[in-house]
Write a structure and sequence with these properties.
InterPro entries: DUF2086. It holds the Pfam family Oxygenase-NA. This is 2OG-Fe(II) oxygenase. With 245 residues, the chain is an alpha+beta fold. It has a single domain, classed as Jelly Rolls. It is 25% helix and 33% strand. The protein is built from 5 helices and 15 strands. The chain has a 7-stranded antiparallel β-sheet with strand order 1-11-7-15-5-4-2. Strands 3, 6, 9, 10, 12 and 13 form a 6-stranded antiparallel β-sheet that branches.
Length: 245
């Protein structure tokens, strides 16, 4: 009998996030402002989350992007009663990303107001008037897109966030790449695109990243968006670690 030499796959979402190589993640974020971390959700879980889009009781607000000139398509903000996979992912990512957030704040000479637990941090957000859930379920159809932007909803901001693909590119939809641009000092902006596979997650900066210069560290502003979906339907889950006003 031949035994597999591969280690067993972590069984829970918390275990899968905890198994992410923290050193490699930090290095990738330092270099690019974004970092893919592989598959975290099964296709079944992805389809289950995407199917919640039509359940009005799950959401506190729906945004028509065309109305606000954000692009085309719609997204919905979950209530604080998050579906179990969404809640578990958010709680698991916070301690993984916290040391990186603190390191970035140190380089940029900024305050690092984030406590050791997500619960404490969200309580501070609510005390400051940012008491609305910012977890997002987005849906794009043919011709839809998302303008380049930053998800800053108040004075209290966590500098990293996560997006998870819920549909299979090339099968469920075409187009719809995740886009990022970085504004470079005295130079043209630099762009990148990522195809989000089903169940895969991408960690990225909320608004900027530390950039080394001759004078030390400076903030490199970054924005994210989505290219035009050419066909099919594209759903994504957005995890934000601060709440909104």
């Amino acid at each position: 009998m031949t035994r597999s030499t591969h280690p067993p796959r972590p069984s829970t979402l918390t275990d899968r996030v905890a198994a992410i190589d923290r050193t490699a993640l930090a290095a990738e974020l330092d270099e690019h402002g974004s970092a893919p971390v592989g598959r975290l959700l099964t296709p079944e879980v992805c389809r289950g989350i995407a199917a919640l889009y039509g359940d009005d009781e799950r959401f506190r607000a729906t945004i028509d992007m065309a109305r606000y000139r954000f692009g085309s398509g719609r997204y919905r903000y979950f209530t604080h009663e998050l579906p179990d996979p969404v809640r578990e992912l958010r709680e698991a990512f916070y301690p993984l990303l916290l040391p990186i957030a603190r390191a970035w704040a140190d380089k940029l000479g900024r305050d690092a107001p984030w406590p050791d637990t997500l619960e404490e941090w969200i309580a501070r957000c609510h005390a400051a008037g940012q008491d609305k859930s910012a977890q997002i379920l987005l849906r794009y159809g043919p011709g839809d897109w998302n303008a380049l932007h930053q998800d800053v909803f108040g004075e209290l901001v966590f500098p990293l966030q996560v997006v998870v693909g819920l549909d299979a590119p090339g099968r469920d939809f075409t187009g719809g790449e995740f886009l990022m641009t970085e504004q470079r000092p005295r130079a043209q902006s630099r762009g990148s695109s990522t195809t989000l596979e089903q169940g895969h997650a991408l960690v990225f900066t909320t608004r900027d990243r530390p950039v080394a210069s001759r004078r030390g560290w400076s903030a490199g502003p970054m924005r994210h968006g989505v290219s035009t979906v050419r066909s099919g339907a594209r759903h994504t889950l957005g995890l934000v670690f601060h709440d909104a006003k």
